[in-house]
Amino acid sequence: MPMTEISLFGAFIMGLVGSGHCIVMCGGIASSLQMANSTLKPISVGLTYNLGRATSYMVAGALVASLGNSFAKQNTEFALSLKIFSGVFMILVGLYVMRLASSLKWLEQAGKTVLWQHLVKLNKHLLPINTYSKTLLYGMLWGWLPCGLVYSALTWTLQAPTPWYGSAIMLSFALGTLPSMLIVGQSAQQLSRFLNHTLIRWALGSIFIWYGIYLLIIASDRLVH
Predict the structure, then answer these.
(1) Does the residue 153 lie in any domain?
(2) How many domains does the chain have?
(3) Which of 41, 54, 95, 128 has its CA 20 to 30 A from that of 65?
């Protein structure tokens, strides 16, 4: 794997396997936008909304990577602690996806209190969503919706060697969520039922847990040596 032990493909897979959560969190918003406006093409609305969402993810990734990189350069022990932090977070994500623990609820609540309750007030300036520019801005706004999976992906960007790499990690994550976010109506309900099936949730959650254990093993090896 590259310098950070976090590959872009890994971030894509994280977005893909977390799609069930994405459908619950903001799939309804994307679907309603695609179906509500008769003057705009549904597929174009979906792509524009998700472009806005991905843009916000990329901005957040660049900011977090800049923060993590600046501290890591000053302290190698801090850089190692970031790897341990990412591994622990992946395990928490796995437990969250498997619904064995509400391990990320506190983080979503913190994001809602600190940031989202203020940003959501901007909604009124964008409604009704009757142009592609408004759709893009609406997607950018909802890209800051408190989401445990997004925050977990951002912990990976803490290790990114550059802000650009941090941005690329979040773009890969966004691309992983894209298929489920573009599906509307009955197909979305069927996909949601599939992804939220107990066996599927356990299988996907196990991927996160094993990846978290892998990161902890890498970090422990470097700690020993």
Answers:
(1) yes
(2) 1
(3) 95
Would you state the structure tokens that stand for residue 202, as one six-digit string?
A: 């356990």
CA-based nearest residue to 35, from 27, 25, 26, 45: 45
**Rounded CA gap, 210 and 191, in Å?**
24
Query: How many angstroms separate the CA atoms of 61 and 172, rounded?
Result: 11
Is 3 within a domain? Answer: no
C-alpha angle 120/152/74, rounded to 5°? 105
In a domain, residue 2? The reply is no
What SS3 state is found at 161?
Answer: coil
In a domain, 206, yes or no: yes
Q: How confident is the model at residue 1 (pLDDT cuts 50, 70, 90)?
A: very low
Can you read off the two tokens belonging to residue 78?
A: 């801090």
Q: Which domain holds residue 17?
A: 8-224
pTM exceeds 0.85 for this model: no
DSSP codes, 66-120: HHHHHHHHH-HHHHHHHHHHHHHHHHHHHHHHTTS--TTHHHHHHHIIIIIHHHG
Using only the alpha carbons of the chain, give its radius of gyration: 18
Answer whether 174's CB lies under 8 Å from 168's CB. no
**pLDDT band for position 220 (50/70/90)?**
confident
